[in-house]
Amino acid sequence: MELFTQATALSAGAVLLLTELLKLIPITFTSKYPAWVNGILSVIAAVLVVAPTFTFVSVAQTAGTALLIAVIAAISYNQFTSKLKGSSV
User: Fold this and answer.
1) Are 11 and 46 in contact (CB under 8 A)?
2) For the packed helices 34-50 and 56-76, what is the interaxial angle rounded to 10 degrees?
3) Helix or strand holding residue 59 (H, E)
4) Where are the chain's structural domains?
C-alpha cells in the first residue's frame, strides 16, 4: 500500500509538470484549457499507477485515483506554481 501512495504522490507532481510543459506548445487547447489537460493527464497517470484489469472495481479504483491525482495537481498549482510564476522578484 505504501508503494501505491508513493506512486500516486509522484504522479500528481508529474501531471503538474507535464501540464506546465504542455502550455509551452503552440497549440491553443493546452494553454486555453489547462483543467482539461490536467484531467486527461491524470487519467493517463491513474492508468499507469493502478494498472486496471477492467473489472468494475478496477475501473472505479482507476477513476478515484485519477480524481485524486487531478485534485492534488490542481491544489499544487494553485498553492505553489502560480505563486512562483506570478512573483517578480
Assistant:
1) yes
2) 130
3) helix 56-76
4) 2-80
pLDDT at residue 86 greater than cutoff 70: no
Q: Which residues contact 22 (CB under 8 A, 6 or more apart)?
A: 30, 37, 41
Nearest residue to 44 (alpha-carbon basis) of 27, 25, 66: 66
- With CA atoms as reference, report the closest residue to 79 among 37, 18, 16: 16
Which distant-in-sequence residues (6+ apart) come within 8 Å of 38 by Cβ? 15, 19, 70, 73, 74, 77
pLDDT at 9 exceeding the cut of 60: yes
pLDDT tens readout for residues 27-53: 888 778 888 888 898 999 888 888 888
**What amino acid occupies position 57?**
V
pLDDT band at 4 (very low <50, low <70, confident <90, very high): confident
Distance CA(19)–CA(11), nearest Å, equals 12
